[in-house]
Amino acid sequence: MNPSSLKSRFATRFLRALTQIHARKPICPSSPTEIFRRYRRIKAAADKSMAYSVRSRRTWTGAVLWKLRSRSCGRRSVKTSTLVKSQQAIEKKTRHEKQNKNTTTTTGGHGVGFGVEATASELRELVPGGEAMDYCNLLDETAHYIKCLTTQVKVMKKIADFYSL
Amino acid sequence: MLHRLESLESCNYNGMDVAVLERQAARLKWQQQNYVVQNNNLVELCASSMPQFQGLIGSNIGSGQMVQLKRPEVFLGSGDFQEFVNFPVAGAEFGDSEKLDLVPPEAAADYCISRTSSCQMTALNTSVMKEEREDMVLEKMESTTGSGRESFNKRKPEAVADHKGKNKRIKGEGESEVKTKCSTEISRNSSKENSKASEVQKLDYIHVRARRGQATDSHSLAERARREKISMKMKCLQDLVPGCNKITGKAGMLDEIINYVQSLQRQVEFLSMKIAALNSSVQFNVENLPMKEFPAYVANFPAAAKLPAMAGLPYFQLNPLQKESVNCMLNESILPAQTATEGIASASVSISEQSLSSSSMTQLQPFSTWNMDPQGSSSNLTVIFHSSSIVRVEYIRIWHLIRYTPDTDTS
């Protein structure tokens, strides 16, 4: 395994996060709420470690991290200055992208068929941060997102297999 | 200069006015200052193809060959481009060659091919271009004389054009697409000499070549460029998504991509749920994990040997497809431990299926400590084993889901 590959970076980060999750809460008997809560934390940890593990910062990574932060901060209802700044940065980015999207779709809108636009909007909902991108960039983001998701699934599958043993 | 233009007029050049020429020259100059340049590689290509081009242009080759032109301008986003494109062509096609929109149409095929290739127009270049354009037009006129030769001396070298079909170069894709065959199509009667080597500046271009019979206005060219980009990206996506080779068409591909992304996201959820559920029975110490070592199989693990009764446990997989099913499962009452034995028996059935997925075992990281809490885990076991029959059915579905092979032949 290449020590600096996406897979290994994600694996180390995710395992560290898992240990933290375990360390935080004692292993109590499995009540469904407990498990559900842990599931949410594990999923958040997986997404976060994936977003941090990519070398080139992408739109979807920013969107994922922003969602996670806003969700956690919303619960605590405390906004730190860093969070506000990051939110503003992301808002500015999405605004900028929306402007780009407007300009490109006006000129190139008829190039893509109408039916394709419907599925493209569906894709936008799936890919985080996809709402504010034009079609070309959306396809780029989707490709990168798929690649990262497959890595994530592989690593998590191995971890889960190991746990189940 | 004026007398040349007058002669031009008299020659009934297809509706091109001198005034129009001058206006277009002025506009061109303005445009060129606004051009965006993009493609670096093209310059080297042009430089490399120059010598061949120069060699070829001196001879009177037949109609089968074409000179390769480089378009110095970026066509996308230029509103006035249409006029520029139409300038030398004046709307007619020439001979049987479809590529050159820039070549002035002339049935007698006396036309000059070369154009400057510099994109950043300095004042000098613009003046040169002006002259070239006039010269270009004039070439048609000077059908039999070789006097056009010197007019080409000022020309800058030209560029590379694909003589068939579209040729679009974007940042770095250019090299693979550019066909540097230097076929020259020269006027039949006069031998043109190519200009000297270019002061092609190291600039980037987006070159778009319109196919025969297609519109050449800037909007459709931009559209075409965009569509090309999109189709290239779709091809990359096709490589990423398994089982997409047979699907043609954008809509089908998009649906496939959407399905794949959804399935991947669901897998992540399912796996994190699984880890959450299974983690309750084990503790582990991750800090001591060396990255490069791969553990032996768990069967060799010392802790597993201590608990023979739990031997069935490792091969059991928790199979809820969604969180609701997990909750249902775990909400069931905890059964007494007698069910553990039948649970193990049924669990062993899934061992064979499990072994299919255990190829990933070799790459797991070692856990340095392994603490099994018998009491805690047995209660989990009973809960899990109670629904083992349901689980088995689910397992097969999930197995296919995880594999995600749309083709059934690989199962």
Summary of the model, kept short:
The complex is a heterodimer of chains A (165) and B (411). With 165 residues, chain A is mainly α.
Structural commentary:
The complex is a heterodimer of chains A (165) and B (411). Chain A is mostly helical. Chain A contains 6 helices and no strands. In chain A, α1 crosses α6. About 5% of the residues of chain A have low confidence. Chain B is mainly alpha-helical. Chain B is 46% helix and 1% strand. Chain B contains 14 helices and 2 strands. At the A-B interface, α1, α2, α5 and α6 of A face α8, α9, β1, α11 and α13 of B.
Features:
heterodimer, A: 165 residues, mainly alpha, 6 helices, globular, B: 411 residues, two-stranded antiparallel sheet, 14 helices, 2 strands, disordered C terminus
Which secondary structure elements does this structure contain, and how are they paired or packed?
The complex is a heterodimer of chains A (165) and B (411).
Chain A: H1 6-24, H2 32-53, H3 59-76, H4 81-108, H5 114-126, H6 135-163
Helix pairs in contact in A: 1-2, 1-6, 2-3, 3-4
Chain B: H1 2-10, H2 18-32, H3 41-56, H4 81-89, H5 123-141, H6 148-151, H7 174-177, H8 218-240, H9 250-279, E1 282-283, H10 302-306, H11 323-331, H12 339-357, E2 371-372, H13 374-386, H14 388-403
Antiparallel strand pairs in B: 1-2
Helix pairs in contact in B: 1-5, 2-4, 2-5, 12-13, 12-14
